[in-house]
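hey so i finally got around to running the thing on that chain from the lab meeting. sorry it took forever, my laptop kept dying and i had to restart like 3 times. anyway pasting the input first so we r on the same page abt which one it is
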Amino acid sequence: MRSGPKTLTSKILVAEANRETVINVANRLFRERGFDGIGLKDLMKGAGLTQGGFYKQFESKDDLAALASRRAMESATRRWFSVAASSPDPLQAVINLYLSRGHRGETGDGCPLVALGSDAARQSPDVRKPFQDGIKAHLQVLEELMAIKDHDEAAHKAMAALSLMVGAVTLSRILTDQKLSDRLLEAAAAEVKRIAASEQDD
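ok and heres what got predicted. didnt touch it at all, straight out
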C-alpha cells in the first residue's frame, strides 16, 4: 500500500522535528559534558529517540557537533542583543549578564565559549567554524557598545574585553572557593568597564 501525500508530509515533518530535537539536546549536553563526554546512544536517548535513527538525520557526530555549536553560538549572541536592547546602559547590561553568579552556574545553557572553548580547539575545522563565527559576532556586539569612535581601537578593546570575560567565567567555574570566584567575576567586570570607557590617550 503506497503512502499518500499527507502521510509523506507527516513523515517529513516528524523527521524534521526529531532532527531539531536532537540538535537542541546536543546543544545542551555537549556544553554540560564536552564533545567527547557523551556518546551517540546517550545523545539520542536524551532526545527520546533510538540510536538507529541517528544516521538518517546526520552524517556523523562531527556533523551534529557543528550544527549544535552553531545553534549555541547564535543563541548566545541573540541573548546579548536582547539584554543590550532592553537596557538604558547596554554595555553594563551585557557585563552584568555575562560576569554574574547566575551565568557561572549555567553549565548547560551558558556561553559555549566557556563550556566548550578548549574542547572545540581540538575538533575538526567544521566544528571550530561556528565558534569562529560566534566569536566574531560577539566582538561586533562589544565594538558597537563601546564609546570609542576609532574602529581599530574599538576592535582592539573588544578583543581584550571578550578574552577577559570568557577567561573570567572559565576560571570562576573551576574555583571551589566561592568568595574568590565571586571576586574574580567582580574584578573582571570592573576591568571590562574600564577598558571600554574611553579611547587610549594620544
